[in-house]
Amino acid sequence: MSTILDISRFQEKMNFTTAALRNVTAVMVRCAYGTAKDAKFDSFAAAAEKAGMPLGAYMFATWHYSSVSKDFASAKKNAASQTQTALSFLSGKKITAPVAVDLELESGAKLEFNKQQLTELTNYVLDLIKKAGYTPLLYCSVSWLYDRLLPEQLSGPLWLAYYYEGAKEGSFPDTKFGKLLQAQQKKLVLWQHSSTGSGSFYGAGSKFIDLNFGFGFEKLIGKGAVAEKPVPQPEKKSLYTIRVKSGSWNVRQSNSMDTPSKAIIQGGKVMQASQKKNGWFYLPEQKGWLGPAAIESWSYNRSYSVYTVVKGDTLSGIAAKFGTTVDRIYDDNKAAYPRMTRDFIVVGWKLKIYK
Asked: Which domain holds residue 330?
């Protein structure tokens, strides 16, 4: 009998070699709680990869809490921010199994959205995960699925929780929730049947651990997942404002008088330079260097990084990565990309992210 585990920081430690010996075929590791990274995600992901254990991830969402989102519009914005931030945590990890969004309510939390609204928001998040290149998955309890969502309208496969003592792989209990579970068999890929598995038996540091049966889950490993997704490395640059002396000046191919002229500019102008080296300034528009003799004055402006937009990016996600805001990125790049909106960017655009 094969088992799929789901773990988080509450497991404290995890021996994936031991788990493999107990017929664990994959593990789902919590990568995020809201926009915060799970404290054990990086170490668990590295250990799973080292042990050759297929790895998936799940993000615990809070965007649907009434204390977080006051209305549908803010919930959609917060859903995008939380999802993109969680996806950024996966960069560089060997994720070969699905990526799930975990929907539930903690003690004291409230939900104000109706079934139609929450279903639409859930599909929106599943689509963001899919666009990022991963197989999307929805985690919730069986009761949550029927009480708070419209199951027939959900776009992704399901990972459902229903704890039942004596659960057997490949069959469903003859109970109310067992029958509801069976009704979703076409979409069901994981059944979380216990939260009281022996932690030590499976190599965990916690007393208990969650246990799951797979329904074709193994077929999803390596399909629609991103293996070792590279971390986009922003190019760090600085910006300078220079005033050119009166007269005519050569812009040269490199920062040397011995190289050919590329253009001639007239003095008295104020221009932007992106590099300064040995007194020379690089002018991006002319694609050449202006020597120190031509410079009347110069000043150093804000430094910035150049970030290239990749598939699955949103401005909110990029803002979260760099510790800035959507409005700042939008204002600094709108002139270069007139089509940009706060909800629309294009793969390949090179955005200036100022400190």
From this structure: 304-354
